[in-house]
Amino acid sequence: MSWLYLIVAGVLEIIWAYTMKQSYGFTRLAPSVITLVAMVASFWLLSLAMRSIPLGTAYVIWTGIGAVGAFVVGITLLGEPVNTLRMLAAVLIVSGLVLMKISSV
What we know:
Elements: H1 2-22, H2 29-49, H3 55-78, H4 84-103
Family: Belongs to the drug/metabolite transporter (DMT) superfamily. Small multidrug resistance (SMR) (TC 2.A.7.1) family. Gdx/SugE subfamily.
Protein name: Guanidinium exporter
Organism: Halopseudomonas pertucinogena
């Protein structure tokens, strides 16, 4: 169950990052509220996951899901640029996530 909590926490991190961008510095109500709710839920689920997953593993995977997810959302929804170095960076992050998961078994 801890891994499910961690994955959902990572997805919520993507959501709050995107809605924070959409809030325009917390000047728009709906995206601001979604950001804050998603942040609290993400941190809460991360804390539940850390009950049985080591701190380093949980935190790296949580931030990695958020980083790569925000990268993909930036490209697909916000029209951010795609280039070889950015793609390589995302591949390296995912590789690190896989290695961290494998090493924590």
